[in-house]
Amino acid sequence: MQLSLQHWLQAYGLTRYTDIIATLIMLAAMGGLCLVIHVLLHKVLLPILKKQSDKSPHLWSKSLFKHLLFNRATWLLQAVLFQLLLQLLFDPHSILFTALTTLCQLWMMLLCLLIGFSLLDVIQAITSKSAFAQQIPLRGIVQSIKLIMAILVVVLMISLLLGKSPGSLLTGLGAMTAVLMLVFRDPILGLVAGIQLSANDMLKIGDWLDMPKYGADGAVIDINLTTVKVHNWDKTIVTIPAYALISDSFKNWRGMSESGGRRIKRSVNIDTTSIHFLSQTEIEQLAQARLLTPYLGDKQQEISEWNAQQGVDSASLLNHRALTNIGTFRVWLESWLKSHPKIRQDMTLMVRQLAPADHGQPIEIYAFTNTVIWAEYEAIQSDIFDYIYAALPAFGLRVHQSPTSADIRSLAPNRGHSLD
């Protein structure tokens, strides 16, 4: 077309600069045609599709526009039309044709990459609410694919500019592997970490992550190629390198959340000086407790039969078996927990005696609540121990408490007077 136009200009008496004039005319014609196509696509077609998308109840149709898929597709269509016009209007042996063709091909490669990004974003948006997406770090995988696509497109663009095949360029880049590994260290480690986290089901969005080394104690809100974001319970946000979750240890509370029960593991320290054998009067008083009536009846009969078989006398308490207040307290506490409406009876439940220490004799409660909600769990635990502390005097037991300054002052002689 360009040569025909030059001949036409020469036929009308133009003998100088016909090639330049023909080129300018071709560029103007192509620019005007491209402008018309651009207006039709972006001012007519896209708004119509946008209105239809807004009316649609489907998420995928809105995601197509939100992530600019149609917008980038129209730009790619314009680049293809521009390439076709170049082949129709310009001399394929001219320098301008070669330069414009190279630029157009680079532009199409970039648009293809951006369209690929948009497609991945649409897929991520559509599947983000599904159960499958909750099981894997989808965002990290998508970012990994984007990184690989970008590297491949960059290689293709460089090979186009240099006029060499991509294979030979990749071979030359092999010598730069060490540099590339250093530059992309975090993305590579993050990609490997994301695959391991997904394959081993170690972490997913919404899990309660506890990692004291990084100050993380909260819910996972984002897993991407290089980092994991944790929304702590104090409303702060901690960012952890993804590969740190593989190289370091962390605690995932997902098992607790899925089980439906949260563990209570707390001790009551008993003053050892308050531990004693129960007298008959104390036994009769405790027997009035509904939860202790069966135990005391059976235990007294067992002890009486054992003492009778052994023929022991009652001159000393050390000569025969007897009930203790701390043992009876443990039995009552376990029975009380088994009847508690907010304690899981299908999970481990026990009241055990730990080794005595400086702070008295620990009696530990090991049980699970029927809720995993933090506020409800703390309320149940507090109610249980409130009742335990109030019930201890009924067994003649006291809670161990270290002396305070007020206790020491109350024992000092002539309290309130100065020392001579």
Automatic annotation (TrEMBL):
- State the protein's name: Mechanosensitive ion channel family protein
- Native organism: Rosenbergiella australiborealis
Spell out the subcellular localization from the entry.
Endomembrane system
| UniProt membrane topology term | Multi-pass membrane protein
Similarity comment: Belongs to the MscS (TC 1.A.23) family.
- Which positions, given as ranges, span the membrane? 20-41, 69-90, 96-123, 144-163, 169-195
InterPro entries xrefs: LSM_dom_sf, MS_channel_C, MscS_beta-dom_sf, MscS_channel_2nd, YbdG
Write down the PANTHER family for this protein, in alphabetical order: MINICONDUCTANCE MECHANOSENSITIVE CHANNEL YBDG
- Record has Mitochondrion as a keyword: no
The record places domain Mechanosensitive ion channel MscS C-terminal at 337-396
The UniProt entry, under Pfam families, shows: MS_channel_2nd, MS_channel_3rd
Q: Which UniProt keywords apply?
A: Membrane, Transmembrane, Transmembrane helix
The signal peptide, as residue positions, is none
